[in-house]
Design a protein that fits this description.
single chain; about 500 residues; alpha+beta; 10-stranded mixed beta sheet; 8-stranded mixed beta sheet; 20 strands; binds flavin-adenine dinucleotide
Length: about 500
C-alpha cells in the first residue's frame, strides 16, 4: 500500500525546510520536493543577516521588526556555529536622515525585540573610533553602533533539512513537482526526478506551496489555480571584494536615493557589499548582478570609504529574487517584507497552503504559523511548538563555545592547521567531530582538492548533506569557491564523476 503523507511540501528553501523540520518534529509524516539543490533558490542569495531590519521601521512594519528582532537570539542559540552576532556602524550623514531619527529608530530596535544577550546601541565619535579610519576623513563625525547577527544562509537550510530527515521526513532534492491534483480529501502530487526524468506520484493529506519566487508559477502551471494574493519579484544584487578594512564591524550606509547598503566582513578575507532593490520579471533562476547594479554598489560604497570601491576589486557577484507579497507599494524598496499565507480550503477537500514573502530571519516563526494554519487537518491535539529551544545539527553548544569546539577539533585532529579547524568549526559545529571520525593523520583526509577541502569532507557532504555537484560543495555547503580556481573546481567535478558520487542520495 502506498504511503499517505500528512504533509507534502513544494520547495527546499529555508521556508520549505523549516516547515518540514517543525512538522516532522511534531510526529507528522512529511515529504519535501526541491527541483534543484536544497537552498539553491533565494535562500542562497541573501545578504546573510539575521536582523530586525532597521529600515522597515520607516514603513511602520512593527510586527515584522519585533518578531525578527526576537528571532535573532533564538536562532543564534540554535545554531551558534553558523549564526553569530555582528556589530553594525551607521555613520550619520548630514543631509540624509537626521540624527534624532536614527537615535529613535535604534532606541526602538534595542527595546522592542526582547534583547538579552546582544549588546545595545552606542554612539561613536568617528574621528577617534577605529571604525572611522576606513571612512572619508572629515565627512563623518558621529556614528551609531548597534547589534544584529549574520548567518550562513544555505547552511541554515541544510541544517533544517538534516534535522527534518533525522526526524523521519523524506527530503528529495532534484525532484520537481510537475503536477498536483486534489482527489477529495487527498492530494496526488507527481514528482519528476530532474536527472533521470523518472516520475512518481505520492499522496498527501495537505500540500504546502513554499516555492518562493515560483509560488504563483506552481499554483498556475502545476496545480491549475489562480492565486488571490500575488508575489512581487524584487531583485537584489551583491558584490564581494577583497577585504576593505581590518576591524570586525560591518557598516550600514545610507544612500541619497533613500536606500541603504551594507558592507560586511565576509569569510575572513573579503567584504560583502549589497544590496539593490529592482522589480524583475521572467525566470527567477536566471538573474545575475547587472552592470548597472554593480556600478550602483561601487558608487554607493565609494561615497563613504576613503579608498573608492572599483570593479577591479570584485571577486564574486551574485543576485537573487525576493518573493515579496505584493501589497501594491509603489516602490520595490517599500514593498512589505512580511509574510502572508493563502489557505485554499473547502469542505471535504484537501487543503493547500501557499506562502508569499518572508525572510530568512523569520523562517522558524513562519513555519510555526504555517502549521497553525493547517492545525485542524494535522496536529495531534495539544502538540505545542517545539523549535525555539531545540538546537539544529551541529549547534548543540553554548553561544560562547565556538572556541571550545575549535579546540576539540584540534585535539581530535592535531595535524589540521588552525585555519582548517576553524573553518570546520564554523561550518559544521559539533558535526565536524563526526565528519573527522576515523581520521588519524593527514593521509586519512584523502585527496586534497585545495583550500583545505579534503576527500573526507566531500564524502561527508555527499553522504550526509545531499551534495551532488562541485557547485553544491564549493558555493553552497561551503564558500570555498572564493578560494579555489577553475582547474581545482573542474578536478573536483571529475573526481565526483569518477568516484560515482555525483548521483547519490536521492
Ligand atoms: P527559496 O529559497 O527561493 O525556495 C523556494 C524553492 O522552491 C527553490 O529552491 C525552488 O527551486 C523550489 N521550487 C520552485 N518550484 C518548484 C517545483 N515545481 N518543484 C520543486 N521545487 C520547486 N532575509 C533575511 O532574513 N536576511 C537577509 O539578509 C536577507 N537578504 C536578502 C537579500 C536579497 C538580495 C534577497 C533576494 C533576499 C533576502 N532575504 C533576506 C530574504 C530571504 O532570502 C528570502 O525571504 C528567503 O530566502 C525565501 O525563502 P523561500 O524558502 O521562501 O524561497
Amino acid at each position: 500500500m502506498t504511503q499517505l503523507y500528512d504533509i507534502a511540501i513544494i520547495g527546499g528553501g529555508i521556508n520549505g525546510c523549516g516547515i518540514a523540520r517543525d512538522a516532522a518534529g511534531r510526529g507528522m509524516s512529511v515529504i519535501l520536493a526541491e527541483m534543484n539543490d536544497l537552498g539553491s533558490g533565494t535562500s542562497s542569495w541573501s545578504t546573510k543577516l539575521v536582523h530586525g531590519g532597521l529600515r522597515y521601521l520607516e514603513y511602520y512594519e512593527f510586527r515584522l521588526v519585533r518578531e525578527a528582532l526576537s528571532e535573532r537570539e533564538v536562532l543564534w542559540k540554535l545554531a551558534p556555529h553558523i549564526i553569530r552576532p555582528q556589530r553594525f556602524v551607521l555613520p550619520h550623514h548630514t543631509g540624509l536622515r537626521p540624527a534624532w531619527l536614527l537615535r529613535l529608530g535604534l532606541f526602538l530596535y534595542d527595546h522592542i525585540g526582547g534583547r538579552k544577550l546582544l549588546p545595545p546601541t552606542r554612539t561613536l565619535d568617528l574621528a577617534t573610533d577605529p571604525t572611522g579610519i576606513p571612512l572619508k576623513p572629515g565627512m563623518f563625525h558621529k556614528g551609531f553602533e548597534y547589534s544584529d547577527c549574520r548567518v550562513d544562509d544555505v547552511r541554515l537550510v541544510i541544517a533544517n533539512a538534516q534535522d527534518a530527515d533525522a526526524r523521519g521526513a523524506v527530503i528529495r532534492p532534484r525532484t520537481k513537482v510537475v503536477n498536483a491534483a486534489r482527489e477529495g480529501d487527498i492530494w496526488r502530487v507527481t514528482f519528476e526526478h530532474t536527472k533521470t526524468g523518472a516520475t512518481e506520484t505520492i499522496s498527501a493529506r495537505t500540500l504546502v506551496n513554499a516555492a518562493g519566487p515560483w509560488v504563483e508559477d506552481v499554483l498556475s502551471t502545476k496545480i491549475g489555480m489562480n492565486a488571490g494574493a500575488h508575489v512581487r519579484l524584487v531583485q537584489g544584487a551583491h558584490i564581494v571584494v577583497r577585504k576593505l578594512y581590518d576591524h570586525d564591524r560591518a557598516y550600514i550606509f545610507q544612500n541619497g536615493d533613500g536606500r541603504i547598503i551594507f558592507a560586511i566582513p565576509y569569510e575572513d578575507d573579503f567584504t560583502l557589499i549589497g544590496t539593490t532593490d529592482n522589480d524583475v520579471h521572467g525566470d527567477p533562476a536566471k538573474v545575475t548582478a547587472t552592470p548597472g547594479e554593480i556600478d550602483y554598489l561601487c558608487t554607493a560604497a565609494s561615497e563613504y570609504f576613503v579608498k573608492p570601491v572599483t570593479r577591479a576589486q570584485i571577486v564574486w557577484t551574485f543576485a537573487g529574487v525576493r518573493p515579496l507579497y505584493d501589497d501594491g507599494a509603489s516602490e520595490a524598496k517599500s514593498a512589505t517584507r512580511d509574510y502572508v499565507f493563502e489557505l485554499d480550503e473547502k469542505l471535504g477537500a484537501a487543503p493547500l497552503l501557499s506562502i508569499f514573502g518572508g525572510k530568512i530571519t523569520t523562517y522558524r516563526r513562519l513555519s510555526e504559523a504555517a502549521l497553525a494554519k493547517l492545525d485542524g487537518y494535522l496536529s495531534p491535539a495539544g502538540f505545542k511548538p517545539w523549535t525555539s529551544t531545540a538546537p539544529l545539527p551541529g549547534g548543540d553548544f553554548d553561544v560562547e563555545g565556538l572556541d571550545t569546539i575549535n579546540a576539540r577539533i584540534l585535539a581530535s585532529a592535531p595535524f589540521l592547521s588552525a585555519s582548517h579547524a576553524r573553518r570546520l568549526a564554523r561550518t559544521y559545529g559539533t558535526r565536524a567531530l563526526f565528519l573527522l571520525e576515523g581520521v588519524h593523520s593527514t593521509a586519512d583526509l584523502g585527496r586534497d582538492f585545495g583550500a583545505t577541502l579534503s576527500e573526507v569532507e566531500v564524502r561527508y557532504l555527499v553522504r550526509h548533506e545531499w551534495a551532488q555537484t562541485a557547485e553544491d560543495i564549493v558555493w553552497r555547503r561551503t564558500k570555498l569557491g572564493l578560494r579555489l580556481d577553475r582547474a581545482q573546481v573542474d578536478a573536483l567535478t571529475n573526481w565526483l564523476e569518477t568516484a560515482g558520487l555525483s548521483v547519490s542520495m536521492v
